[in-house]
Design brief:
9 helices, 7 strands
Length: about 240
């Protein structure tokens, strides 16, 4: 019952036709296979006043499969919040895998950290409290980091998505993946501007421009998945 209530409260991020259909996917595919640490972290995060910022569990399930398919070992996460996608990545990559996790809000991360520690994967995480552009630039100063990373997940300030993209194109290796979250912005990308709520207008404009740029970027192969709030999956190509 608690899971059903949480799913219903987060449904405004989903793009499916009905809450019932979304709940069906959660009940039949996601929740039965969700590792216990992720369930626990989702429950911990539910009391956060901005709980809706967490990664949707069905989107996380897709991420886990992609991480496995490319045998990801070194990853970057921009925007951590309480750490659902971070923990998912840590549980999925090998024992000697490493995640560089970047966020300006350490307090939210520390809310979920006890669960990460309890799961025994905290040694895989290098949390950096910083503006992401500064942290990425610091990584790029070391030329050994060029093409070193297998995977990156971005769920952060939309105004900098393109700036993150340019840096990640240098840090992620050919054959690696970069995923950008919230790229359909609650479906507003296809709505007339005058029908869009004021708080969504700026993000809508930024993401429409960003999606168009990615569609024409010869450095990547893309798939725009209508899962969660939209996920743009980018495969780095030569």
């Amino acid at each position: 019952m608690e899971e059903k209530m949480t799913a219903a409260s987060n449904y405004d991020k989903a793009l499916l036709q009905s809450k019932e259909l979304y709940q069906y996917i959660l009940d039949t595919s996601v929740y039965p296979n969700e590792p216990e640490p992720l369930k626990e972290l989702r429950e911990v995060s539910a009391i956060h006043p901005r709980h809706w910022m967490g990664t949707a569990p069905d989107a996380g399930q897709l991420m886990a499969i992609l991480l496995k398919l490319i045998n990801a070992k070194r990853t970057i996460e921009i925007g951590v919040f309480t750490g659902y996608s971070l923990l998912l990545t840590a549980l999925t990559i090998p024992e000697d895998g490493k995640i560089i996790a970047i966020d300006v809000d350490r307090e939210a991360y520390e809310m979920g950290f006890p669960v990460i520690k309890k799961a025994g994967v905290e040694h895989k995480v290098n949390f950096i409290k910083s503006e992401a552009l500064r942290a990425l630039d610091d990584l790029m100063e070391n030329l050994d980091n060029e093409g070193r990373f297998d995977f990156a997940f971005v769920d952060a300030d939309k105004i900098n998505y393109l700036n993150y993209h340019e840096r990640l194109m240098k840090l992620v290796k050919v054959g690696g993946l970069v995923i950008y979250d919230n790229t359909l912005w609650r479906g507003t990308v296809v709505m007339p501007e005058d029908a869009v709520g004021e708080k969504y207008k700026e993000g809508r404009k930024l993401l429409m421009e960003f999606n168009k740029l990615l569609a024409n970027d010869a450095r990547i192969q893309i798939c725009h998945a209508s899962i969660g709030d939209g996920m743009m999956i980018c495969r780095r190509v030569p």
